[in-house]
Amino acid sequence: MNLLTDPEMLRLLGGIGGLLTLSSLIGWALSLRVREGPTRLVIANLNARIRSWWVMTAVFVAALATGGIGSVILFALTSFIALREFITLTPTHRADHRTLFWAFFVFAPVQYLLVGIAWYGLFAIFIPVYAFLFIPLRSALAGDTEDFLTRTAKIQWGLMIAVYCVSHAPALLMLELPGYRGEGPKLLLYLIIVVQLSDVLQYVFGKTLGKRPIVPRLSPNKTWEGTVGGIAAATLVGTLLWWLTPFAPWAAAVIALLICLTGVAGGLVMSAIKRDRGVKDFGTLIEGHGGILDRIDSLCFAAPVFFHVVRYFYT
Amino acid sequence: MAAADYWDHPGLRRWLVACRVLNALLVERAGRCGSREALRRIDDALAAGDSLILFPEGTRGDGTTVGELKSGLYFVARQRPTVELVPVYLQDLSRILPKGEVLPVPLLGSATFGAPLVLAPGEDRHAFLQRVRAALISLGARG
Fold this sequence. Notes:
The structure holds two protein chains of two kinds. By secondary structure, chain A is mainly α. Chain A has helices at residues 7-33, 39-65, 68-89, 97-116, 120-141, 148-167, 184-209, 224-240, 249-277, 292-314.
């Protein structure tokens, strides 16, 4: 499938471009209306976020346009940076140095190599079996037993979240769906649209209607109003985009809801990790959003579940 | 500033550090006349209007505590009391490349800059070094 000639893809990209343009116009109008007070900072952050969305969309679409390999490389780099952010925030010992080297330069690249060559059998178990067994072994060989279990768990969880989970997004390209051959990029685009739109709409509903926080101690900005409104609206969009996928409309509704719910779960868990480490964001890479891990926290949980639901019911 | 005994070897290391990229001032660490020579060269560099980066611990630590500071910083401050000493706390560098390791791990390091310090009138060496060290430690706690 060629992205630039496929009418469905072009229609969708036109829609995304229109949405971004509309957001930029709204952001610009708001910045003219609100000139002082604390709201001004919220608007400035909103506009920074919108600018970053333009960049992220352009990078993602460019990767998608290359077919498989560009997407695999883009998500591999995303995982690498996410792992940097995660491990930087997670105290490890001097004795873990070589273990970390393996995580960054062997396990993460090999996981994406397996996606690239579409070796599903090893892709599915490489990190949970081989990496997870090797990591404690390598740290044990270094001879430092203090906080051994904690240190091992932190490195394993970093690989799990930042590499293993994220790699399920480009892995959608290796699925052979009957009657949907070669259209994997559409499935990947569908996942990204629903999961990120769910984040954005939760933010929009939260900022406009949000009152009651779900877990006040964890995340005061995550409110019932924002979450429910955002999920409902993103599920609706996911349903209306059924023609992009191999799903029937009702199935698209169920799957979009599942993507949104797992996304919320990811956001809550990653917030808990940030609170535990006493930081607001994982990094500063993406203006207005924080680190790359702040942007993909929902995707970390949604990608593997979406992948396996599609694989189980549609192949 | 960097140690000559470590960096002044023929090849990439000397080329990279001393000459091209970092524009380092290499000094001898061993021996008393070496340190007098080093101070003179530091003074020349400051007199020429250059900024200098000093690593007052004189080595890489284990990353958990700020080590005791070497006296060199005090002598520089005494010799040029008008020079501003800006404390910089380097976070996570020891995790990126601990002493004795060859392969770095790509973590995100950070540098936290503090308010400039100057030698107070009549302040002795020990008090001055302790004050600088305390400033570094508080920068680390903030970052």
